[in-house]
Amino acid sequence: MRATVDGFDSLEAVPLGYWPVIVVADVKDAAGFHTDQNGQPFALVEAGSSWSLTASHETLEMLADPFGNRLMADPSPKPGQGRVEFLVEVCDPSEDDAFAYTVNDVLVSDFYTPRYFDPVRHDGVRYSFNGRLTEPRQVLPGGYLSWHDPVSDHWFQETFFGTEPKFPDLGVLARANRSLREMIDAARPETRRLSTLEPENSRLTRAITAAGSSEEASSARAQSLRAHIEGLREDRQS
């Protein structure tokens, strides 16, 4: 999947055909993925110290499943269930900030690869971008995985928000003109949003420190280039 990410200072400046990820001061209970009145995807991200982690999460999941309804069939992780349909949410199983990484000193979310839904584990396979997922359908602490059981028509999850995984039954989802991903998000209000990590969070602190160093280096290079350009101008004038 190939895409570009562009920044705009207002919604009015966003060209038609873009899928907006909108950073706002307070999302209340509306954070995450949505579809507009024409069924096109957009996401709301709460501004905060680590908003880039949530923004990358929403961007990656929007790219892998733009309309929030993509399903993959595979064996259920819940004992006693057979083959089920997993909702494709590429960041959720390893979404916790403990498994984030940085790009150009910006904190971003881990995500699983297409091999995540392999039927069995194989050595040497990359199941997530940074390698923290080590087998198919694995859920790491702070993450979750959602699926539909066609036998009961219920939706289930494996959640790892405490000391061990749990398998909550979400029941039958009433679509109500919303995508599956919107409905799953609404059904799990306790799911952590990661836009505002604690100031003492080590990963956030390292990213901020590295970004400060990069800014200093960029500023020094800019000053050097300006001086060099000014020297070129003086040479041409003499």
Overview of this protein structure:
By secondary structure, the chain is of the alpha+beta class. Helices cover 24% and strands 19% of the residues. It contains three helices and ten strands. It has helices at residues 51-64, 180-187, 202-237; strands at residues 21-24, 32-35, 41-46, 71-75, 83-87, 101-103, 106-108, 144-149, 154-159, 169-171. A hairpin with a 4-residue loop joins strand 8 (144-149) and strand 9. It is elongated and about 85 Å long.
Highlighted features:
5-stranded antiparallel β-sheet; elongated; alpha+beta; 238 residues; 3 helices; 10 strands
SSE blueprint:
Blueprint: E1 21-24, E2 32-35, E3 41-46, H1 51-64, E4 71-75, E5 83-87, E6 101-103, E7 106-108, E8 144-149, E9 154-159, E10 169-171, H2 180-187, H3 202-237
Parallel strand pairs: 1-3
Antiparallel strand pairs: 2-3, 4-5, 5-8, 6-7, 8-9, 9-10
